């Protein structure tokens, strides 16, 4: 009997026992659904995090007081006693370091309310003071107007460049260039608007206004906040050498003693993404283990159902053997039934898992993803489960004595 005929027989048998097949499928569906849904969600979150972390320009790294990612209780307290990174230290770094293309000294204050002549925002905006190298170091582009010049910094000009969220809220029906922006009762003339960047890590990247850092510090002072310093290397080939040169210069400026750890943190897009990947992999291991247990339980259920099926169909097996079916045909038929059950359950579980995982990811502002590797793994595991747990019932069916099978009631 050909393989195609055996598949047709297996499908007709499953169709004739819809309830039993559905109950058997449910175990496989739950097992595959759990692993695909979790892996889809984790991959979606990871993709969203990676997109949110890719905020620096190419070949760029940043110096700051605190690590960007802190895991575990009390992590921030460990770094709180570090001295702040001051504006003067940033200026000295520009003079002392020899291997860099651009350096952007940055000063930020959060939770600010912005006002125009007509409208006001919620207090969820950021005001920042930066120098002229900000654009190159932070992968930002001006859409309208211009960015700060060195003249603006030298003269402490009261000018501002704003994000698109600020434009939408304060200047919905007019060109913001040339209009006034009020922050803490201080007026600034808007000279530029950033190209919209969208959300990252569930937060907007466009609800901010930047000022010349000299104007920022003239208004808010400069000795009660720690600066961030972004540095761009001349090229990809000189990136590591630039990091070493800047770290050496910064340690000297901050008087870090030989043998002691740095009193500042270095991070880049790549280092942050590596940290996130290392963190999420443990969730994947845990999800894989739980799903393995679920698939094992489903496999035992399939074996049980197939054994019941062999018992119920003993007379059918006897008749098939009596008309010429050999042991191999009987064995393959029952194996095919087990594999079809597993694969059908696997496909349903994969579809439901992809839909559920991506819906949860979209709710958390993550992109839609398809974990192709885990889809393939899920289908392979379903086949293995069908074969492994279908072998014994199929073997038992194949070994039935023809006469005894015919006599079975």
Overview of this structure, please?
- With 409 residues, the protein is α+β, with helices and mostly antiparallel strands.
- The protein has 14 helices and 13 strands.
- The strands form two sheets. Strands 1, 2, 3, 4, 5, 6, 7, 8, 11, 12 and 13 form an eleven-stranded mixed sheet that branches. Strands 9-10 form a two-stranded antiparallel sheet.
- It is elongated, with a radius of gyration of 32 Å.
State the end-to-end CA separation.
27 Å
Decide which structural class fits the backbone. alpha+beta
Number of helices: 14
Largest sheet: 11 strands, mixed
Determine the fraction of residues in helical runs and give it as a percent range: 55-70%
Shape: elongated
Over the alpha carbons, how many angstroms does the gyration radius reach?
Answer: 32 Å
What is the gist of this entry?
This protein is α+β, with helices and mostly antiparallel strands.
Topology:
Elements: H1 3-16, H2 18-53, E1 60-64, H3 75-80, H4 87-96, E2 102-112, E3 114-115, E4 125-130, H5 134-138, E5 142-145, H6 150-154, E6 159-162, H7 164-170, E7 180-183, E8 186-194, E9 199-200, E10 203-204, E11 208-212, H8 213-220, E12 228-232, H9 239-253, E13 265-268, H10 269-312, H11 314-322, H12 327-363, H13 372-398, H14 402-407
Parallel strand pairs: 4-11, 6-8
Antiparallel strand pairs: 1-12, 1-13, 2-4, 2-12, 3-7, 5-8, 6-11, 7-8, 9-10
Helix pairs in contact: 1-12, 2-10, 2-12, 2-13, 4-9, 10-13, 12-13
């Amino acid at each position: 009997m050909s393989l195609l005929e055996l598949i047709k027989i297996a499908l007709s048998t499953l169709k004739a026992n819809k309830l039993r097949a559905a109950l058997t499928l449910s175990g496989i569906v739950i097992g595959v659904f759990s692993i695909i849904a979790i892996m889809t969600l984790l991959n979606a979150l990871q993709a969203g995090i990676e997109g949110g972390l890719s905020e620096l320009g190419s070949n760029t790294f940043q110096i700051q007081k605190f690590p960007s990612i802190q895991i575990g209780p009390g992590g921030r307290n460990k770094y709180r006693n570090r001295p702040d990174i001051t504006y003067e230290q940033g200026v000295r770094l520009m003079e002392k370091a020899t291997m860099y293309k651009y350096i952007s000294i940055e000063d930020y204050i959060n939770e600010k309310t912005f006002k125009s002549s007509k409208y006001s925002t919620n207090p969820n905006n950021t005001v920042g003071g930066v120098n002229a190298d900000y654009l190159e170091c932070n992968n930002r582009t001006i859409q309208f107007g211009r960015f700060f010049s060195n003249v603006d910094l030298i003269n402490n000009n009261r000018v501002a460049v704003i994000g698109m969220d600020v434009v939408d809220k304060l200047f919905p029906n007019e060109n913001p260039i040339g209009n006034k922006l009020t922050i803490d009762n201080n007026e600034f003339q808007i000279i530029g608007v950033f190209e919209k960047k969208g959300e990252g890590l569930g937060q907007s990247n466009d609800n901010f206004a930047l000022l010349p850092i000299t104007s920022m510090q003239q208004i808010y002072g400069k000795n009660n906040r720690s600066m961030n310093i972004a540095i761009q290397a001349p090229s990809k080939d000189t990136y590591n050498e630039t990091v070493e040169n800047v770290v050496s210069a910064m340690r000297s400026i901050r008087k870090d003693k030989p043998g002691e750890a740095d009193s500042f943190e270095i991070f880049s897009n790549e280092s942050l993404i590596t940290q996130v990947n290392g963190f999420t992999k443990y969730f994947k291991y845990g999800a894989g283990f739980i799903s393995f247990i679920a698939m094992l339980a489903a496999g035992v259920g399939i074996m049980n159902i197939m054994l019941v099926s062999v018992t119920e169909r003993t007379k059918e097996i006897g008749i098939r053997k009596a008309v010429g079916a050999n042991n191999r045909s009987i064995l393959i038929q029952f194996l095919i039934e087990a594999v079809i059950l597993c694969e059908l359950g696997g496909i349903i579980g994969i579809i439901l898992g992809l839909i559920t995982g991506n819906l949860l990811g979209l709710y958390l502002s993550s992109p839609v993803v398809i974990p192709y590797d885990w889809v393939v793994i899920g289908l392979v595991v379903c086949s293995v489960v069908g074969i492994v747990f279908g072998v014994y019932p199929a073997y038992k069916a194949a070994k039935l004595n023809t006469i005894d099978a015919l006599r079975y009631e």
